[in-house]
Amino acid sequence: MFDRNDKGILLKAIMVAAPILLCMGLLPVLSFYIEKLEEDGRAEIVEYIAIAQAAMAVKFDAADLNGWQNGYALDIVRHVTGASSNDSMSRSEFLRSADNFSRDLGKLRAMRLANDQRSQLNSVQEDFNRFMALDRKIIALYRAPDAASQDKASNLVMNEEIRIFNHISESANTLAVSITLDLMKKVAQSNSYGIVARWMMLVMWIIASAMGFLLVRLLHKWLSQMRSLMQKLESLAGTDELTQLPNRRTWDLQIEMMLATARRYRQPLAIALFDLDHFKQFNDTYGHPEGDRLLREASLLIKSRMRQSDLFARFGGEEFVLALMDCDLPQAVIRIESLRRNLPDQQTFSVGVTLWLEDERIHSTLARADKALYLAKNSGRDRVVSIPPPAPGHAEN
């Protein structure tokens, strides 16, 4: 269930939590002294304890919100697919934390606060509103199909969003400290030293409970993030680092599922090989960084024009492979012509396309597509050449 690192972290968390849990066990034993408190000042102190609890909740909500925001914000900066999806783990937990933060701010606002504390609370609310508005803008930019918008989203995450949230965290912490100090003053103003001591024990119990709760939450969040990170690392292992397209390993896995679907539903499946024309000459003329940029931009443009059911992967160098589900050969040629229009820097693709023959090994289909690609290159490039599959029972030449 846990690996060695997880068990080590869990053991450390238990060692830290043990003294807290001991205090939580001992303090309720002393709580019966609260019954002997004098009535004078009791209601006011209870009210301030509730305010302190609400302020601590806002502070802990800010820490929780920051943790989940960091998770999906890092994915946005790295342009990881699905980072802005509301049902992704970090994003959905962030939205849940934002709801909790807004709810607890409302609870604190309804309580009796000093003028300076209410001013601090208003500042936190205004910053939070600006933060959420900026977050919606970042998500909208990141979901845009163009790289410029996604880069702008990354810059907003790394600059303005971090700045706003740091101010929220500082203001929430200052507010919690101010209210806690007021609580201490009210307790100190009680009629007797015994009452002060007993209420301090109650405050300690509240703080110990909150620390224990926060420790468990942070441990749970850490374990969840570690598992999420492992899943993302596994996903990255199947992604081409330069273009963010599926790599050969992912192609081999996903194409088998597409073949099974095509076989089951008797659907045609077109396979095409793409080769960027004169790419070596482009690299020699403009340099490898520009060549990398061209590959990224061309990949992103073609991917943005594909259907969700299609599979586009990088085979290596300037060669790409495309699988078009439920698409016969004439339709495939038309689709591919539309995909390769208006590429960056007036670059062109040569494409060879064929149909998968039922029960044929995919390597044979790829070899036939490669033969069509060879014909496209020898015919002057910048074109799509199709080769139909052989009739059943006839071997290919």
UniProtKB/TrEMBL annotation:
Its EC number(s): 2.7.7.65
Record keywords: Membrane, Transmembrane, Transmembrane helix
One GO molecular-function entry: diguanylate cyclase activity
Superkingdom of the organism of origin: Bacteria
Pfam families in the record: GGDEF
Occurrences of domain GGDEF (ranges): 267-389
Catalytic activity: 2 GTP = 3',3'-c-di-GMP + 2 diphosphate
Database matches in InterPro entries: Diguanylate_Cyclase, GGDEF_dom, Nucleotide_cyclase, Rev_trsase/Diguanyl_cyclase
SMART domains listed in its UniProt record: GGDEF (SM00267)
Membrane spanning stretches: 9-34, 199-220
Protein name according to UniProt: diguanylate cyclase
Organism: Chromobacterium sinusclupearum
